[in-house]
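Risk register update: the risk that structure generation would not scale has been downgraded. Supporting records follow, first protein first.
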Amino acid sequence: MQWLLLGVLGIMWTAFLVPIGRKRSDARSVEDFERRMELLAHAEVHGTSGRWIVTPRKGVRFLGPRERQQARVRARRPLTDRAAVTEALAQVAELAARLLTDESLRGESVPDVAATLELLAVPGSVLEGPALVELGVALAAVRAVDALLARLAADAPRTAALRAPLPPRTIDQRVRESLGPEGEVLDSASRELARARRAVRETRERLVARLEAILGGVDPADRASESAVTVRNGRYVIPVRATARARVGGIVHDVSATRSTVFVEPPEVIEIGNDLRAREAEEQREVLRVLRGLTDLARPHQGTIAGAVLDVFDEEPLPTGSPLWDAPNVIVMPHITCDVPGYAERVLDRWFDNFERFLAGKRLKNIVDRELGY
């Protein structure tokens, strides 16, 4: 699961590369940052990076094996304004304190909707039912977190400032009314769809009843061993012995493995079968119209809901092929937490020190013993 609330702590990790209290000039801080970014880019070229880095304004971010990711890293610049850094750290401290003291605070699990949001941004695209259901679940989680942040406005104003405008509730409501839990389009989605499905059911019942009557009139010697109305290639048929094909007539849609049985559509029901196909096509057109309507309802708000800070995943580490790595407005964080002062800075210092040692062929520090597991 991916957790919205705990991930908020990573939004403001803007000061770890330029910590307050260091007696160095802003120019020196920027110089240090640029050197480290070059090291990270070099790590990507050699395929040796642990891939987790801390970047200003974006929190902990994954570096994929792509040149554009390296360009993003090189373009980062640390905050050098003391007031901005102080405010950012105060926001993190405020939320961290609330998480330690307020047991009512909890994260909301959300499905991975990165690919859905990416498709939603394509003009004319239509989301499938399951994708729309997941989007509805994500919106419900966002609303729960928004309500929680609103409740904190008096006691934790910096945390409450993380609230953002939400899409209208009409989207959630329409998705619930139109789709089942697995994404199937419900009859209640539209009157036209309910009417189309009723016509399909009535036509199918009429066709099956006619076929059963025809099969009942076939000489027992001409029937297949397991004779019942069935479907082949989307058409309703009856099974008869191959030797009786000419007597029954109609269109052969399939033959058994032994070739002793043929599945035929008798001439008497061909028009009813055509009518059923036409009504099924009408049903599918109405299903598509419902899905298009729901997609178009959400599309104008794609930019509003296309942002998240994600910390925990169903599969960890997050696979390199996940669309989350390149999703816009998504911050991916490692599944870690610590409130020891200076922890993140020391971790980063250790990582950069070890990577420079690696490049120089020196022994690394803090090597994990695979047998001990730490």
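Supporting record for the second protein:
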Amino acid sequence: MGFTMKNIGNLFFHGNRSQRKVALTFDDGPSRETRELLKLLRKENVRATFFVLGKHIGNNEKIIKTIIREKHEIGNHGYSHKSLIFKSRKFISEEIKKCDDLLLKKFDIRTNLFRHPYFHFGLNAWIVTYRLKKKVIFCDVKVFHKPHTLVCGTL
């Protein structure tokens, strides 16, 4: 994120409200739609953060390489997109680490950015992300392009 974020611990809610900036983030990918989105971002010379699902990495390696090459940020969105509320610390840790391990193994990427699937989390999820030194990124504006495709803006 290219500007100061308002946070409580490792939970980040929005940027500096005195600046006229927006952080664009995209969740649940990569997918077929990601290619079209990347074309539009390239045309407009805009950078974004893509919160990727581990289960989508294997079939979309070329898309992720394009995201990296075009200098967008990569964040972790978990492996399976299961809600992390009412889950054990072990389950939550495995969800996050499995996605992290794939990003490291296939692309040599380490990310400290994380977004909870559906923005669902409880105390166990907060404890796990804190221990893993993850910055948990929320957003102000949520737009569902299609079912299970979320576009967020943080003002």
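The chain has five helices and nine strands. On this basis the risk owner (M.S.) recommends closing the item.
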